[in-house]
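Design a sequence for this backbone.
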């Protein structure tokens, strides 16, 4: 039963990744269909992220009142409504009605399942869990590419909704498995420090800004990779352009798979340093002044590989860096910082690229990679000084 429940949890994170990459891969075609500027993708992405933030903020209360499995079932149902709603939207403005279930569902899944796994499974499981998020995020751009080749962008959302409904059915059928594991899985945790108290702990604020920087770069890649190829390479088909949206997700998946295998030997800090170095190599490859799209495609894939271990490693370090008393609040603050970066910075890039051209994307990503590295190193220094006192 333990292994079966773990398989269901991994499948749930596949469902979390499925909706996240659809907008970026389909936007070049959706933009033309709706007759709006390319920067308007940022408004849709921001609205989805805002609903995700709201859902994450109320998730602790939901976790106390409801079982994790029921939160997951309702959340996946909400994402299905959002996906179908996007596919039926006749105008750009109608999308904003459906971002409500779209974002609310994603935030509740993310918070509740991460909390569940962090409380009851090992760190290796956490790394592999985020790897399976990448599986879902890789699948959906290819679904969109297939839909653009044979039907239309609307079908990309509908086909993804059908997969989500299949996962929803599996989650409903797995309810007896959750019930048999409740005694082991629903253990009580001792109360920890509050948000305000956690913010006063040395090193927390630089970590939050570093997390903001990481997620700003990651979310910009999610939304704008396909548009980067559409704007900088000539003669590419809509389907091929849409498929490039899977590059960053494929890299994340591979990076997290590797980090899950080696994390116990290398440790979180070294993993992050190696990851950011690999990310910068990928960004430099995207910058190469060649018209052929293959070096840039390889660059985005390598960028994703480098990004892969950063998110789970930062979260996994919280108990070690700040103590068990503060770890829950710090992780909650990290998720809020992540969603804030994901909400604001892709939209900021949308406006910048409209003025300066989408070719500035590699430089934009490099700034956030450097900021992430510097602030995390500052955190390590602060913690080292604290331990000496």
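Sequence:
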């Amino acid at each position: 039963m333990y292994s079966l429940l773990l398989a269901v949890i991994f499948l749930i994170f596949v469902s979390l990744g499925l909706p996240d990459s659809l907008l970026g891969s389909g936007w070049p075609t959706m933009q033309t269909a709706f007759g709006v500027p390319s920067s308007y993708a940022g408004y849709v992405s921001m609205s989805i992220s805002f609903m995700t933030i709201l859902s994450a903020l109320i998730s602790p209360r939901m976790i106390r009142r409801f079982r994790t499995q029921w939160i997951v079932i309702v959340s996946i149902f909400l994402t299905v409504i959002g996906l179908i709603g996007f596919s039926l939207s006749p105008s750009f403005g109608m999308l904003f009605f459906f971002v409500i279930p779209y974002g609310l569902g994603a935030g509740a899944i993310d918070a509740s399942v991460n909390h569940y796994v962090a409380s009851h499974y090992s760190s290796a499981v956490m790394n592999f869990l985020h790897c399976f998020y990448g599986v879902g995020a890789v699948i959906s751009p290819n679904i969109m590419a297939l839909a653009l080749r044979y039907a239309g962008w609307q079908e990309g959302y509908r086909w993804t909704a059908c997969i989500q409904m299949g996962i929803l059915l599996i989650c409903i059928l797995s309810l007896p498995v959750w019930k048999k594991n409740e005694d082991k899985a629903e253990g009580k945790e001792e109360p920890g420090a509050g948000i305000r108290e956690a913010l006063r702990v040395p090193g927390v604020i630089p970590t939050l800004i570093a997390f903001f920087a990481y997620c700003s770069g990651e979310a910009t890649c999610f939304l704008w990779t396909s548009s980067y190829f559409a704007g900088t390479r000539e003669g590419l088909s809509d389907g091929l352009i849409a498929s490039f949206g899977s590059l960053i997700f494929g890299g994340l998946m591979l990076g997290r798979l590797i980090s899950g295998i080696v994390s116990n030997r290398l440790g979180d800090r070294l993993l992050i340093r190696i990851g950011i170095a690999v990310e910068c190599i990928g960004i430099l490859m995207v910058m190469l002044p060649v018209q052929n799209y293959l070096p840039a495609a390889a660059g985005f894939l390598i960028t994703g590989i480098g990004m892969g271990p950063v998110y789970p490693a930062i979260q996994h370090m919280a108990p070690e860096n700040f103590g068990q008393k503060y770890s829950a609040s710090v992780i909650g603050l990290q998720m809020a910082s992540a969603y804030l970066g994901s909400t604001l910075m892709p939209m900021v890039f949308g406006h910048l690229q409209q003025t300066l051209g989408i070719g500035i994307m590699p430089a934009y990503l490099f700034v956030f990679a450097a900021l992430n590295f510097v602030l995390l190193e500052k955190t390590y220094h602060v913690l080292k000084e604290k331990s000496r006192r």
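The radius of gyration is 20 Å.
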